[in-house]
Design a protein that fits this description.
alpha+beta; Ribosomal Protein S5, domain 2; Alpha-Beta Plaits; 8-stranded mixed sheet; 8 helices; binds (3R)-3-hydroxy-3-methyl-5-(phosphonooxy)pentanoic acid
């Protein structure tokens, strides 16, 4: 489907006021998205596991305005308190999607969100937040078009979420999601995420222990990081590498080859951070404890042959990925060897999940 297919044509039947709540998870990329073109079009395809516990819950309240104009009337609350610093990001998101969901500026809107994990910690909080808001907007659209197909509902939710934060389009539905055009997957799209169904059973209960090395705010946001890919000397090679790794990962996911999975996932994580370290200006989001943890994982894997590997988001935290069958051994290893390197010994034991939901 193309952007014009997502334009809502008629919305005069909308309610004067209402309220919807939704929850959406974060996701962890196996093949990383880093670098975009205008209007949130990725420079390479990416693939992620949808998470289950790291979630944003959003309550979206709307009421008809007396006089609507081009300005949005929005208030954003975070954990019960008005958070004016989040409002420009939401306004920017609404400006991008007004073309597709034209009723937004006719309402006074209140968005109240809560996370189950620390904000701006490298856990993709903007992904889960934008995905949960997109689901609320789709609930409003569904109220005037109850016959809307599930396929359209989820595609448009992902399409809208992408315009809030690129990777958010991978937090809507399905366990494993591909975003970005590739000739290696027929339904793939630059505009929304698509679920990968051909996935080996070994991945269907994969675990992600998120080791919170630093739960503070990041020095460089991911939007700044994406910008820096524009004049990056290695951008071309990086996009090509990610395209090859997408093809490779689709094959790995189908065949269930854990050795190849580990090699591809860790290479992707380090390539992402190599891009950061070679940007102008350069920056480092890993911290000494990130590297300590990586070394410990490599030693453990060499000694035990347990298929456990790491990946990194745009932050210092380490995501430890492993199949459920080794969860007890992994937990023991984490608690004995890794928690000392985490801020306040914090870890979130997450796992692969199915996506966003409406809360009744
Ligand atoms: O969606 P954004 O703009 O926050 O970018 C996310 C980028 C990474 O998390 C580093 C990689 C990815 O594909 O999720």
């Amino acid at each position: 489907m193309l952007p014009q297919d997502f334009v809502l044509k008629e919305y005069s039947q909308l309610a004067d006021k209402g309220e919807f709540s939704a929850q959406a998870p974060s996701n962890i990329a196996l093949v990383k998205y880093w670098g975009k073109k205008d209007e949130q079009i990725p420079c390479n395809p990416s693939i992620s596991f949808t998470l289950k516990k790291a979630q944003t819950h959003t309550k979206f309240t709307f009421e008809k305005r007396q006089h609507s104009n081009d300005e949005f009337d929005i208030e954003v609350y975070f954990e019960g308190k008005r958070e004016k610093s989040f409002e420009p990001k939401i306004i920017n998101f609404f400006q991008r999607i007004q073309e597709y969901s034209g009723f937004l500026n006719t309402y006074k809107i209140k968005i109240a969100t809560e996370n189950t994990f620390p904000h701006s910690s490298g856990i993709a909080s903007s992904a889960s937040a934008m995905a949960s808001i997109a689901i609320c907007i789709m609930e409003i659209e569904k109220s005037i078009n109850p016959k809307m197909t599930n396929d359209y509902y989820y595609k448009k939710a992902s399409f809208l979420a992408r315009l809030g934060s690129g990777s958010a389009c991978r937090s809507i539905t399905d366990q494993v999601v591909l975003w970005g055009n590739t000739s290696d997957y027929r339904e793939s799209s630059n505009y929304y995420g698509v679920g990968i169904s051909d996935v080996h059973s070994i991945f269907k209960d994969f675990q992600d222990a998120i080791l919170l090395v630093d739960a503070g705010k990041k020095a460089i946001s991911s939007s700044q990081g994406h910008q820096l890919m524009h004049h990056h000397p290695y951008a071309g090679q990086r996009f090509e590498e990610a395209k090859q790794n997408t093809k490779r990962m689709l094959h790995i996911l189908k065949e269930g080859n854990l050795d190849d999975f580990i090699k591809c996932v860790e290479k992707e994580a380090l390539s992402l951070h190599a891009m950061m370290m070679t940007s102008s200006p350069y920056f480092i989001l890993m911290q000494p404890n990130t590297l300590e943890i990586i070394q410990k994982i490599w030693t453990f894997r060499n000694e035990t042959n347990i298929p456990i590997c790491f990946t990194l988001d745009a932050g210092a935290n380490v995501h430890l990925l492993y199949p459920k069958r080794v969860a007890d051994i992994a937990k023991e290893f984490i608690e004995r060897k890794l928690l000392n390197f985490c801020q306040n010994h914090r870890v979130i034991y997450d796992e692969i999940g199915c996506g966003a939901n409406v809360i009744n």
